[in-house]
Amino acid sequence: MTRVIDTQRLVLRPWEPADAEGAFAVYAAPSVRPWIRRDDVPATVEEMRVRLLEWAPDDHESTDVHGHWAICHRATSSILGALVLEHAMQTDSLALGGALAPAAWGNGYAAEAGDALVRWAIHEEGALEVFAIVQPDNRRAAATVQRIGMEWVTELGHLPGGRYQVFRVRHGDLGWEE
Fold it and tell me: What total of structural domains would you count in the chain?
């Protein structure tokens, strides 16, 4: 199943192997690296291409809600960033993650894309809730998840690298009636 989510300015779509350079520009950007898992930072464009191929079965064939999305500008088709929904800590709950190319910062793209993906997961796919786990010093990420309606839930102190902030949004938080 190919999943595409459209917003006013963006298209969220599965990654393709041809996107490797654009994906590498996002994940390997020096100002992005501190905020993503170390094992998610590719060393080369070719390593990024291999990772995109590894993600393809989940992104194109899975009937599950989890997966990886390229954030593309609607008018230019350029890759602005990445989003992922994955099962949180071996549960049925979902965790939202993402990265935006530094050149795209400050335009509201991360909030627009994150909001669209969360709404799709909850309203179209039946997810009960979506979490975001944010490093405490990542003020941009915390502000973004709050802009899309997530509320602070707790702090986790047992993860590698220190304490993390946990935010959550549930179906009822999005203002839609059952």
Answer: 1
